[in-house]
Amino acid sequence: MNIKDRVLIVEDEKRIGRFLQLELEHEGYDCIIEHNGTGALDRIGQDHFDLILLDIMLPDIDGLSICQRVREMSAVPILILSAKDDIETKVAGLDLGANDYLTKPFNSRELFARIRVLLRKRSSERLSENFLQLQNMILYLDRHEVQIENDVFTLTKKEFELLAYLVRNKNIVLTRDRILEEVWGYDYIGDTNVVDVYVRYLRSKIDETVGRKYIFTIRGVGYVAKD
């Protein structure tokens, strides 16, 4: 588990909140407790969390309203912990954006298992947001690098933007005009052959180096990145 995973516990009963904090910290999580909805919303707006454990019956703002408001500003996983076990409340919580619902009293092992599932899913989603893949090529969006097996290629900003656009739309034939508008912008003033020039740059740096073709020319139309 990543020790940087931060959990916000929103629980008005201090005894339960403290119990959750001790158990989670023992498992290696970093925990913050808020005992009311107002404090929780303020904290969420100012800080980063990887998971929220949310009680429903709070003294000021109910947990369902908090869930709805959090979803308007964040995709952080929400696990509702509540003594309310009726199906209507469970469905309402999930419909308002909660990722899971566990009724009190609960078994700690089950709670930790559900937390691990939510964090694994969140980690996978983040990873998918940070890279693109085409055949055996991986584009790391956060550091503008291209990796093919053990070889790492450093591209210019525009080369990377062009390649990323082609890979995001892989197996789709893209016209030169569309590429020009999406990568260089509608207000671009310059040589209209710039797309062809940069495709040659990419082929020279990548395709010719590894001896494999990634970007294909569709005569009279444009280009396609084939998976």
From TrEMBL:
Annotated signal sequence range: none
PROSITE patterns to which the protein is assigned, alphabetical: OMPR_PHOB, RESPONSE_REGULATORY
Pfam families referenced in this protein's UniProt entry, alphabetically: Response_reg, Trans_reg_C
Residue ranges constituting the OmpR/PhoB-type domain according to the UniProt record: 129-227
Lineage: superkingdom: Bacteria
A GO molecular-function descriptor: phosphorelay response regulator activity
Entry's Gene Ontology cellular component terms: cytosol; protein-DNA complex
Entries under SUPFAM superfamilies matching the protein: CheY-like
CDD domains with a match to the protein in the record: REC_OmpR (cd17574), trans_reg_C (cd00383)
Domain Response regulatory: 6-119
GO terms of biological process kind: regulation of DNA-templated transcription
InterPro entries for the chain: CheY-like_superfamily, OmpR/PhoB-type_DNA-bd, Sig_transdc_resp-reg_receiver, WalR-like, WH-like_DNA-bd_sf
DNA-binding region: 129-227
Protein known as: DNA-binding response regulator, OmpR family, contains REC and winged-helix (WHTH) domain
Species assigned in the record: Megasphaera paucivorans
Lineage: Bacteria, Bacillati, Bacillota, Negativicutes, Veillonellales
